[in-house]
Amino acid sequence: MLKMARSSYYYKKAPDLQKQKEDTDLRDRIEEIVVNHEKYGYRRVTAQLQREGLQVNHKRVQRIMQEEELICKAKKRWVVTTDSNHPYPIYPNMLKEASITGINQAWVADITYIRILTAFVYLAVILDVFSRKVVGWAIFLRIDTELTRTALRMAIETRQPSKGCIHHSDRGVQYAAHDYMDDLNAAGFLISMSRKGNPYDNAKAESFMKTLKNEEVHLWDYKTFEDVKKRVPYFIEEVYNEERLHSALGYCPPNEYEALVARNENKTRQPQLTSELLCV
Q: How would you label 233-258 residue by residue, b for 16+ Cβ within 10 Å and e otherwise?
């Protein structure tokens, strides 16, 4: 036997109280983020923590979220709202080969539905391809051309795009109708449409709709049209455009990304404005 005092043999290292406190604070902050953004995965949570100045890697965040059962489980849903059986002209997909390097060069439009107790509510949105920002939206109890025209008018009034901006949508009658085309032509848009039955041609708009459903609609028990009119605009303007971290934008929210791009416009050497341009 080694000559060792019994007290030394049974000695246990005192717990690092400072580290325990740091771990507890980190768990609390992760929980706060997930409460506010219930569909955030561990990578977005990590990006948010790093934006707040915390030195933490995604593996540690993933482990904590798994231990605390905070890992989100996205629902997979697919909704068809496109009626392409109409007599109006169809346009080729111009967006597929376009090189988008700034805002108001290309917009994408789409429609989805939201279920309430006694009916469906329809949402039309328009996103800027470059920044993923929702620049126009409309909420109606019917799905018609006036729904999409209202979203388009909002986008044009707030963004004032130059002539030549690409407007991309599916082939639905709400986008192909003469009234909608008149609005596009009057504003000088280049008209682009997806191939028939191919949602991947409008993937950025579809991605937003998925985010809306997973992070807002599926988490709230909408009962009335007024519920939708109150919650959905809040999510679009205050959460998605202002706060939600977007992986394609270097984990920036759209508003912040546009502001960052604007600050770089006056520099002598123009940066590559892609997802590699990270927020600071």
A: eebbeebbbeebbbeebbbbbbebbb
